[in-house]
Design a protein that fits this description.
5-stranded mixed β-sheet; 4-stranded antiparallel β-sheet; 21 helices; globular
């Protein structure tokens, strides 16, 4: 499917079914992911996306944001909840190819369009669709062809012809027209009124000057009292127009949420008394990959994840991991209420405070959980030796994409390196020998670059300056604040302790800089790949809650953390022994 261009006619799209009732639309939706776009008669002809998700038929009305016309700009933008698009085809293409949920509440994802199988009709634009239902006008006894621009009636045709309607009251839009047919004229008005109302403008005659659009964008929301209960509730974000100058009458579509800059007052404010414990890793978030109840390591889910990671380049996976890590750490996406509750502006500051205990435990569990999942990706390969070597190479390439100077996600790098350095993985001599033989470059990068870098980061001596690092390595500081003793001789452990505390102070001081660098990393990727949008399934697969349920199941995920990790370490040990038994 080609990317639709701005202003492309809606009726020319194969998934558009014109005027179609809700009942008929639901009959066409057979499988999860099926969708179509229709004009709703109960909503005045407004476009509605109908889809089937998890066995239920859902309907989403597309909202329209009217803009003041300017050369080279669209006259309206279309949206469901957050992002705005210049046309409905562009909106549908983005949600379908990016597999993004239509709404946060339902998590519905569309993937297979249900195409229209009827006869070919004239196409019409979104503006014609939004004007309302087809108007009923008497037909003339004769057809006339005229070269005057005022006689051209750009009317579309509905895909369902009303049955039992007399010819004299048949809608003009319901008449088929080919390129050789003369254009139908509108019903003539009295001669006197026409003469009084016509005016000359740019060589065209118009019955009345068009209404001047408002200077600020108007968001057309339907009356909630008239909304049928069958439509899904959307929570659209209305662009703010406060303080907009008259010259800025056509705002750009909203930037991604990670680019929203905190105002200077928020960044420079002083510490306030915290109100509640803050969690940036919700445990009850809806999942599009796991059902409400799941068993540990379900084969079908593992197969889906394998294909998902193979579809994405290590650089794209690294940026997805950076996005999720920034959310889990409280660096990006922190709401005003969360800042008020925790008393500071960033999770990096909260980590160093006494009431950051819950966040520190969450990040420790995230680090260990991701490391176990990475080790499982290697130890779960029960096929040929080359398959395990390829899995090792994939983890090495992901670590290189996460290192400073690339994505700069040091917590993600630490988790991937934790998987590669886990005893159950590092003991696989034949697998590592195959990696050096088949993927020499990756093996050299692991030994000569990644291992020394990880050792320096754990000792508090690695790179930590904003610019090459987007998210600093917080694990040593978190372990120290949670009472874990520093290993090694006394003199070396004291130096390491001082370096860790010194790095924590600098991390808090540079928290606004880290936030800006992380947003710039994500923005740069959007600039290089304009069609890129975070994949919702890959993004979910990297969250702590998903990986916890994947490894231990929906019931086992609630067990004590130490008990869960101890049991899974034994599972990995058994898998490692099966792959390469001790001699």
């Amino acid at each position: 499917m080609q990317v639709p261009q701005d202003g492309e006619d809606l009726a020319g799209q194969p998934w558009y079914h014109g005027l179609l009732s809700r009942q008929k639309a639901e009959a066409l939706l057979q499988q999860n992911g099926d969708f179509l776009v229709r004009a709703s008669g109960s909503r005045g002809g407004n476009p509605v996306i109908s889809c089937r998700w998890r066995g239920s038929a859902l309907h989403f009305e597309v909202f329209r944001v009217a803009l003041r016309p300017r050369p080279g700009r669209p006259t309206a933008l279309f949206q469901l909840e957050d992002e705005q698009f210049p046309s409905i085809p562009a909106l549908v293409h983005s949600y379908m190819t990016g597999r993004r949920p239509l709404s946060q509440a339902t998590g519905a994802v569309v993937s297979r369009p249900v195409t229209w199988q009827g006869p070919l009709r004239r196409s019409f634009s979104e503006d014609t669709l939004m004007d309302g239902p087809a108007r009923i006008e008497p037909l003339r006894a004769r057809k006339w062809s005229n070269s005057q621009p005022a006689d051209l009636a750009h009317m579309g045709r509905s895909r369902e012809d009303p049955a039992g309607m007399e010819a004299s009251t048949m809608p003009i839009s319901a008449l088929p027209r080919t390129s050789s047919d003369p254009v139908l004229l509108k019903a003539p008005a009295p001669l006197g009124t026409v003469a009084d109302s016509l005016r000359a403008s740019d060589g065209q005659l118009q019955a009345k000057a068009p209404t001047k659009p408002p200077r600020t964008p108007s968001f057309e929301l339907p009356d909630a009292s008239e909304r049928p209960p069958t439509y899904c509730e959307l929570v659209p974000r209305v662009p703010s127009v406060q303080g907009t100058s008259p010259s800025q009458s056509c705002p750009e579509p909203e930037a991604p949420w990670w680019e929203a800059e905190e105002d200077e007052e928020e960044e420079n404010r002083c510490f306030t008394r915290p109100q509640a414990e803050i969690s940036f890793c919700p445990h009850d978030a809806p999942s599009c990959l796991l059902g409400p109840q799941n068993r540990p390591l379900e084969p079908q889910v593992l197969h889906t994840l394998r294909g998902l990671f193979l579809e994405h380049h290590p650089g794209s996976t690294a940026l997805h991991l950076l996005l999720v890590d920034c959310q889990a750490t409280g660096l990006l996406g922190v709401t005003r209420d969360q800042r008020g509750n925790m008393g500071v502006s960033s999770g990096l500051e909260l980590l160093t405070l006494p009431h950051g205990h819950h966040l520190r435990l969450e990040l420790l569990e995230r680090h260990q959980t991701l490391a176990l999942a990475g080790a499982l990706a290697v130890l779960g390969c029960s096929g040929p030796l080359e398959e395990r070597a390829a899995a090792l190479r994939g983890l090495v390439e992901l670590a290189l994409a996460l290192r400073p100077g690339a994505a700069g996600d040091l917590p993600g790098l630490a988790a991937v390196m934790g998987a590669l350095l886990m005893p159950q993985v590092s003991r696989l001599e034949h697998t590592w020998r195959q990696l050096r033989r088949s993927h020499t470059e990756a093996a050299l990068a692991f030994e000569q670059e990644l291992k020394p870098l990880m050792r320096a980061l754990d000792e508090g001596a690695g790179p930590c300056d904003p610019g090459e690092v987007a998210l600093p390595h917080v694990a040593p500081m978190v372990r120290l604040l949670e009472g874990e003793e520093v290993a090694g001789p006394l003199d070396e452990s004291c130096e390491r302790l001082l370096r860790t505390l010194h790095g924590a102070r600098h991390m808090v001081r540079d928290a606004p800089k880290f936030r800006k660098v992380a947003a710039q990393r994500l923005r740069a990727h959007l600039t290089l790949l304009p069609g890129f949008r975070p994949n919702p399934e890959l993004r979910e697969a990297l969250t702590t809650g998903f990986v916890r349920r994947l490894l231990w199941g929906s019931r086992g995920a609630g067990a004590p953390r130490a008990e869960r990790f101890e049991k899974f370490q034994r599972v990995l040990g058994v898998l490692s022994q099966r792959l390469e038994p001790d001699r």
